[in-house]
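Explain this protein:
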Amino acid sequence: MADPVRVRCQTCHREHLYTARALPCACGAPVAPPLVRDAPAEPVTDRTWADDWVTLRCPVCGRRDRWPRPELDCACGTVLRVPVHGDLAPTPPASPAPSHIPLPRTAAAVRPAFRTVAIRTARDVVTVAAMYLRWLGYRDVRRADRHPRSGVGLAARGIVAQVEPSVRPAGVREVECLWLRAMTESAGCAYFSLAGYEDEARVRADALGVALFVLDLAGEPQPVNSPADELIASSP
């Protein structure tokens, strides 16, 4: 776990002890932003897509990608943006080292390469997930009739999916709710998340057979568990 740093609110002058939260890279390794000690935190007044993200390098696979910039909510109502070392310019990501062992495929892939769409908005995240399901062979992808408690639900014949376009990693409850919806419809299920998954959610997804995908800002969904590899291999 990263060491905590002291953060002083510029509005009410309260001091907070803050620890950066680690999020999983596509390779499975935890990546935590290196916080700058004794640097003033900036109050967040206006939000832009660029300011909400910082580019970091994974210490395990070397992949450089955009991650949510660390923020702290002060009791006075001010949101503080915590300074981070090494805001790197983004480069094309390296091929991630898988955190799982993909299952062997019994036949060569016949589908063309997936055509990516750069992600700039939450709507783009949903669009990419729908395009990926169609690429897998689910032609009748639509918005699900039942709305999930967070994110956006998608459905097609034989599969239900959930898309989390926020900067919050998906939790175990979201994974379990998706699995329950899939069970009631006798369908497979897939989860697409922009910010990855909490560790407990990944473990639970493996146990329930929920396919997990992480989306990068280039618009390339990456399978992060064996059920995701199985879905790719067995899709129509």
Q: What stands out?
A: The helical segments are 122-135, 172-184, 199-208, 226-234. The chain has four helices and 15 strands. Residues 170 and 197 are 5 Å apart (CA to CA).
